[in-house]
Amino acid sequence: MTCLRKTGVQTVVEIKKPNQLEGIDGLIIPGGESTTMALVAHRWGLIDALREFAASGKPIWGTCAGLIFLAEDGEGMKAGGQELLGGLHVTVQRNFFGSQIDSFEATLTASAALGSDDDQPPRFRALFIRAPAIISAKPSVEVLAEWVIPEEERAKAGRDKVIVAVREGRLMATAFHPELTDDYRWHKFFAKMCMEEATRADPTKAFDADTIPFTENVHSVDLPVFSQTHFCALDKK
């Protein structure tokens, strides 16, 4: 919420009830335990309200567990499965990078859409905490960032790289946690999505996100940065 305010967003609210979705311009589904999130959302009557919100065309951003929640399909889910909001045409693998102890930080290259203050491809810090990964995406999905798997891990993973950030229409998802860094470009990117949609619906609204300065490769907490990391990709059945 603090990150959004620093991009110029005037009003940020925490959503706990279906009626709180009325009147907002965008929604962020945060990280957490995806199965528990789905159960709580169902118990509080949020599932149908969230689907209606998504169908309205308003932007939604899912981070980590929020990515799983937005996916149309998933692998490595808990026995019995879990209810997904859907809409994002990707297949996500839960806990792709392993358990909590396998969490790590890395510097990645993003799509030019993220923005940079020079002519180079934008670089950013990504914090992966018991993170999922996107293992396939339909052509309608725009890939914003990928993780290149260390060579010694590729045979086990069955692939050379995985997708860790995407956008499809008004849906956006990241496997990492941008809110844990001081680089607000991902929040600015989403804020622009929200304001573009809000302006389309009501031309009297205006917001100049381009006035927000870039802050690259800055983070508050001095977490270790690994050039390589070991992870436990789930065996395919």
Describe the structure using short key phrases.
237 residues; alpha/beta; 5-stranded mixed sheet; disordered C terminus
Q: Which structural class do the helices and strands define? A: alpha/beta
Q: Enumerate how many helices there are, as a single number.
A: 6
Low-confidence stretches: 211-237
Q: Using DSSP, what is the number of strands?
A: 10
Mean pLDDT score, rounded? Answer: 79
Order of helices and strands: HEHHEHEEEEEEHEEH
Give the neighbour order of strands across the main sheet: 1-2-10-9-8
Distance linking N and C termini: 40 Å
Given the C-alpha coordinates, what overall shape results? globular
What would you report as the Rg, rounded to the nearest angstrom? 17 Å
- Helix % is 10-25%
- Proportion of beta-strand residues: 15-25%
Q: Report the biggest beta sheet as strand number plus sense, adding barrel if it closes.
A: 5 strands, mixed
Protein model, in words:
This protein has 237 residues and is α/β, with parallel strands linked by helices. The protein has helices spanning 2-5, 34-43, 46-55, 65-70, 154-157, 185-201; strands at 27-29, 60-63, 71-75, 88-93, 104-109, 123-128, 133-137, 142-148, 161-168, 171-174. A 5-stranded mixed sheet has the order 1-2-10-9-8. It has a 3-stranded mixed sheet with strand order 3-4-7. The longest helix is centred in the C-terminal third of the chain and has 17 residues, at 185-201. It is globular and about 55 Å long. The N and C termini lie far apart (40 Å).
